[in-house]
Amino acid sequence: MNVDNGAVLLQTSEPTQQPVKPLVSVKDLSVEFVTDHGWQRVINNVSLEIAPGKILGVVGESGSGKSVTSLAMMRLLPKQGSRIAGGSIEIDGEDIQSLDDKALSQMRGNRMAMIFQEPMTSLNPAYTIGEQIAETVRRHKRVSSKEAWKRAVESLDDVGIPNAAGRARRYPHEFSGGMRQRAMIAMAISCKPRVLIADEPTTALDVTIQAQILQLLRSMCEDLGLAMMFITHNMGVVADTCDDVAVMYAGEIVERAGIYEIFAQPKHPYTEGLLRAVPKLQGRSELASIPGTTPAPWDMPPGCRFQPRCPYAVPECAESPLPLRQIADRSSRCLRVGELDLKASK
Amino acid sequence: MSEQPVLEVAGLEVSFPGKKKMFGKAAPIRAVKGVSLSIQPGETLGLVGESGSGKSTVARALMRLIEPAAGRVTLKGEDLTALKGSALRKARRNIQMVFQDPYSSLDPSALVADTVGEALEVHEGLKGKERDARVAELLELVGLAGHHLERYPYEFSGGQRQRIAIARALALNPAVVVCDEAVSALDVSTQNQIIGLLEGLREKLNVAYLFISHDLAVVRHISDRVAVMYFGHLVEVGTVEQIFERPAHPYTRALLSAVPIADPVRQRGRKTAILSGEIPDIVNPPKGCPFASRCEFATDACTEKMPEFRDHDGSSVACYHPLENSPTSEAFALSQ
Amino acid sequence: MIETSERTPDPTADVWVEATRRAIQERESGYRRNTKERTKPWARFKKRFLKQRAGMVAVVFLLLVVLTAVFAPWLAPLDPNKQNLGQILQYPSAEHLLGTDDLGRDVLSRLLYGAQVSLVAAVQATGIGVLLGLPFGLIAGYAGGRTDRAIMFVNDALMSMPGLLLAIAIVGMLGPGLTNAMVAIGIVFAPHILRIVRGSVMEVKEETYIEASRSLGTPTSRIIVDHVLRNVRSPFIVGVSLMTGRAMLNEASLSFLGMGAQYPDASWGAMLGRAFPYVDRAPFLIIYPGIAIALVVLAFNIAGDALRDSLGRETRKS
């Protein structure tokens, strides 16, 4: 077992393979928010990498810091009341933190894009869908307005909106929830970005529509070679869509592994708890859950942050903060990782 | 089941006023069409469907929170739909509701004691210490401490608030509790605790639940029988095993196959039938089966006339082409 | 502990299931441990209000004005109504700190007694406005539909008339006098209070806890008193404090026009009206009551804004 002081380089491919340069590379990212208790660290030394064509699932309960991480990567955190306290964010070869506002707005929507849970709040109700997408294209590419409109219709067509040319002239409120999310995705891919961050993109949708959107995101990722960060709390969606998984708890990554490995054998008790808590569609067994609540940033327990809620905790767990340890091609932040035999289901 | 059902809903219809035009009257929008259900004492009936299917409208109409356009709701032998004013208020003690959002369902300016004790004051005239003693008992029943009654809702987490809401619903020992997406707003870790609590309370108090949810796995876990709604219609009713293992309506099967399974090996190896298209326009509803436009088995008959309910393989289904299920059939494979 | 259901025989007890079983019945589970943060709504209001410097200054000033009004008989150096025709329109001096008016009355004494009259009048007017506006606002907002439309029709008709003209018309009907003037202003204010209340009620009415109360079988009257009224009190209190300032201003206007406080009563507005013909010979006569009115109205407005900022919703801090 090789212990690396928290700053672990996570690799999606094995060292023997041809190394692919990752499109997203976050190293030791820390974010602080101002609270009633002063500046508090809400994201602590988060490192992750995403290779082109890969989908990284980021999972955790509310308050785990998964959305804050993504907003920090897009530099969308509020300027007042929050700050990046350390680490580096490199997206498509650019150091995001060093960019000025102009360069940043050129980057956002062009080389990196984001889709949110509520498409209605990100679409302007006063303009047609086509106008909004064409506007995004015009902002980033030197094209005529006619060309931009053509691109808008093309992207709507790409995301499977029937009669795209006609629908482009409609307003957001005339779209159903699923169609709105498709339109959001169309806007996100209209400038052919390299990196896409999706924050709970299907949580507000019905399951039949969710299945359509997941399929769309997967095929887009493959076809366009996108690196995608997929934030969700739904383990079923992760199992369906992602290539790798990073599990976050209380502002830290506690486990990181390939999709098949993590479901076959979780290496952190929190991951095991999350997987056990998923109600099964077939058969009936007594329900499991993770008792307790995520600690507040100013109220972090000593040692392992999950230790107060962990059924496997021993006194040593509370002694000192734990690093993320590399085990073969995955990593875990658990003291007892060697001795515990964790399983996704009984 | 030979027992008298505790709640019976027959031919429930709900309409909302349509968009008004400047001249002339707007046609009403039919949100719920001819829904009939029954629940036995101590039974849990799951009601599933996607957004816009009318499942929450059914709950509100049978609670008489909105007025049904037609149909009858019989609670413990009493026709709720015929009651008015104080008679209706008195009858409400037998049917209570737990709402989805535990943040907006509790009055932020009222103490827990006032929230949970409100029904006790209104129906039993309990006041002061006597009321507080009962409230404390109820709080302990739902896993809170008795002394929490002097707190305000904002001092509790989402899961705790939902426990308070459950205590309020149980205050008068109702025969039926309608849970409208009662666990949907909660985190996975607390969601299952609330489900476990509801199950335990059912056994303790012999209360029947109408459990409304869009989350099929949760419904599978808690229900004895399940009813599936689509576009304001009930399309299939059966026992939980029938619905989940041998779905007869093509929509039920599509719904089941769309739920991702939390196991990448099985999820990716599974045959899924991704439904194309979307729910029909509510202003111009189709004449026949509302699912016909998305259904692979649809024939001319389907688009002509809404199919009647019929018994099929133990469940009740509104479909001209119910699926034949055997452990080897495609439907079975899809639902697994 | 709850018996586990019999359909789940589970011999290989799983740690997560066991933990969940315990959590379901755990009395204190999930309760916010940080008890320091537990503040009662009133304490929180006080804490927030004390932070607002301008609001605090305004409130202290208003308290001083109220004290002045109450203790006017002791504070006033002279009888406010005692005329001394030999000493009219005198500039401030040691004998008359703020000078004398056209009948030789002591301006400082009249100003102090005037505070009494003006404050009582403003409170009267606001009280009448609340008495009329609050119940109808609650009914219109909660009932909605036809009732709402009927009430709002009358309300809008009243609001479409210029306030002061309407008040003058009402005084014309009731006859001049301070109480009548205040009734008139109260009637003019009622539609404004009604609108504030109705707007907040319509918002609160949509909250699920109102629906929950209905489903419990709680009578409508009780829902309105227990849940609606309690949750509209913040915007209501703010509205009323702003309204009181405006009532004072209107009292001044009516008294200035001679329809409010009658001879020989001292009210700030009446002083202003009485001093007007002598503005070129004794400008100080209009300056003192003018400043008094402006300051008190300003104080009411600032206090209202501070109240608005401190009466925020009880939200969960996480």
UniProtKB/TrEMBL annotation, chain A:
Record-annotated ABC transporter domain positions: 26-275
Annotated keywords: ATP-binding, Cell membrane, Membrane, Nucleotide-binding, Transport
Q: Cellular location of this protein?
A: Cell membrane
The record's listing under SUPFAM superfamilies reads: P-loop containing nucleoside triphosphate hydrolases
| Single GO molecular function | ATP binding
Q: What is its main location?
A: membrane
Annotated membrane topology is: Peripheral membrane protein
- Which domain of life does this protein belong to? Bacteria
Q: Where are the transmembrane segments?
A: none
The question of whether Repeat is a record keyword is answered with: no
User: What does the sequence similarity comment in the record state about its family?
Assistant: Belongs to the ABC transporter superfamily.
User: What PANTHER family does the database record attribute to this sequence?
Assistant: DIPEPTIDE TRANSPORT ATP-BINDING PROTEIN DPPD, OLIGOPEPTIDE TRANSPORT ATP-BINDING PROTEIN APPD
Record-given protein name:
ABC transporter ATP-binding protein
Automatic annotation (TrEMBL), chain B:
| Keywords from the UniProt entry | ATP-binding, Nucleotide-binding, Transport
Q: Which residues form the ABC transporter domain?
A: 7-256
Highest rank taxon of the organism: Bacteria
Asked whether the UniProt record includes Transport among its keywords, one would answer: yes
Q: In the record, what terms sit under GO molecular function?
A: ATP binding
Matching CDD domains, A to Z?
ABC_NikE_OppD_transporters (cd03257)
The record's comment on protein family reads:
Belongs to the ABC transporter superfamily.
Protein name (record): ATP-binding cassette domain-containing protein
TrEMBL record, chain C:
* Entry annotated with the keyword Transport: yes
Task: Domain (ABC transmembrane type-1): give its ranges.
Answer: 115-304
Major location (coarse): membrane
Q: Which InterPro entries does the UniProt entry name for this protein?
A: BP-dependent_transpt_permease, MetI-like, MetI-like_sf, OppC_N
Can you tell me where the transmembrane regions are?
Answer: 54-76, 119-143, 164-190, 286-307
Q: Which Pfam families match?
A: BPD_transp_1 (PF00528), OppC_N (PF12911)
Determine the domain of life of the protein's source: Bacteria
The protein's location, in the record's own words, is: Cell membrane
Instruction: Name the UniProt key words of this record, in alphabetical order.
Output: Cell membrane, Membrane, Transmembrane, Transmembrane helix, Transport
For membrane topology, the record states:
Multi-pass membrane protein
Q: Which family does it belong to?
A: Belongs to the binding-protein-dependent transport system permease family.
This chain belongs to which protein, by name?
ABC transporter permease
